[in-house]
Design goal:
- There is one protein chain.
- By secondary structure, the protein is an alpha+beta fold.
- It folds into 2 domains: 61-213 and 306-339, no CATH class; 218-301, no CATH class.
- It has helices at 2-49, 77-88, 95-114, 139-146, 148-153, 155-164, 192-195, 225-235, 246-249, 273-280, 311-319, 324-331; strands spanning 61-66, 71-76, 126-127, 168-172, 175-176, 181-182, 218-224, 250-255, 261-266, 269-272, 287-292, 295-301, 309-310, 336-339.
- A 3-stranded mixed sheet has the order 2-1-3. A 3-stranded antiparallel sheet has the order 5-4-14. Strands 7-12-11 form a 3-stranded antiparallel sheet.
- The longest helix has 48 residues, at 2-49.
């Protein structure tokens, strides 16, 4: 009787321990694999974080023609960029959008220097006229304009975006690109050649779907029919047009890839959408016209020339968790980021 009892006890013990042993061997292996996978992901994340940090040298000094003082100043490029990004993009924007703006602004300066484009700013590398180069405000100007609270809470965010991308520029064929940017698209950016007649392989029309939150995404402008006619006659002395029959004498002929007006027939004249935008002070060239009684109604989408990076599009992408390099690569086709200092 003793041996069967011993055998029975041994069998029961084996049955109890076997699942435990299998569990330890199987799940223990999985736990190690999971741990190693987590470590690899973390390691990759750390590598990705420093992907573009290949150079660590002192930032260069540039010459800046300050249009507000009519003086040319020598300035550290990164210090200058603090004032540029603060002037070109809202500090309320996401960190990744601000980083994308910082890289674009830095690239613009380097593009000017590499191509020796000094005309219009007294031979300096760059100027502070936003219509010619980029907007800029010094630390003191920002403080006077925005106040101490903004300087304490928002300026550090701008500064951090510039610091985090120190030396990073966008390149195509290893040369700095012309990184055009603007406020708001209508869902798609423009091909450069359809707006400026110059074709750049990296300034192609791309989708820009996250911009509806922009206050300039859709606007309307109303103007009296007589004023509409008078403004056109002021700009085109030979134009033949009357306020009596605008419905039949004004017609959009064709549009760009992104939907902006390319050519519009107005009476006996064919006028570009860009010229119509200038004449009537529209936010963009992407518009429709409507007529209601004595009023001409412009229904406008977007704000700006539409070429390159949409700033509100960049903000929309940042809110969707895209990183600054992903934003830049989306808007500037086939480009690379290079760390130059």
């Amino acid at each position: 009787m003793k041996k069967p009892i011993i055998f029975l006890i041994g069998t029961m013990t084996f049955c109890i321990l076997l699942p435990v042993l299998i569990s330890v061997l199987f799940y223990g292996k999985n736990e190690i694999s999971s741990s190693e996978s987590t470590k690899n992901i973390m390691k990759k994340s750390e590598q990705d974080k420093d992907t573009y940090e290949t150079v660590d040298s002192t930032s260069p000094t540039i010459t800046v023609y300050n249009c507000s003082t009519n003086k040319t100043e020598k300035m550290d490029i990164e210090t200058f960029l603090y004032g540029v990004v603060a002037s070109e993009m809202s500090s309320d924007f996401s960190e990744e959008a601000l980083k994308a703006q910082a890289v674009a602004a830095r690239t613009y300066i380097i593009y000017k220097i590499e191509n020796n484009i000094t005309q219009g700013h007294n031979g300096a590398d760059i100027c502070t006229n936003s219509n010619h180069c980029q907007a800029y405000a010094s630390y003191e100007e920002l403080k006077n304009k925005k106040g101490d609270e903004w300087m304490n809470n928002s300026y550090p965010k701008i500064k951090q975006a510039v610091d985090d991308t120190k030396g990073h520029i966008l390149t195509y064929d290893n040369k700095a690109i012309l990184p055009l940017y603007f406020s708001t698209s209508s869902g798609k950016t423009e091909n450069s050649e359809e707006v400026f007649s110059a074709q750049y392989p990296y300034l192609k029309s791309v989708s820009s779907p996250y911009e509806e939150q922009s206050p300039k995404y859709y606007t309307e402008k109303k103007i009296n029919k007589n004023d509409f006619v008078n403004l056109l006659k002021k700009n085109y002395s030979s134009i033949s047009i009357s306020s009596e029959n605008l419905n039949n004498t004004v017609k959009i002929l064709d549009r760009t890839t992104a939907g902006s007006v390319n050519t519009i027939q107005v009476g006996n004249k064919k006028i570009t959408g860009r010229n119509m935008r200038t004449i009537f002070g529209l936010n963009s060239s992407n518009f429709d016209l409507g007529f209601n009684g004595d009023t001409v109604i412009f229904k406008v989408k977007g704000y700006g020339h539409g070429v390159g990076m949409s700033q509100w599009g960049a903000e929309g992408m940042a809110q969707k968790n895209y990183k600054y390099d992903e934003i830049l690569f989306h808007y500037y086709t086939d480009t690379q980021i290079k760390d130059i200092y």
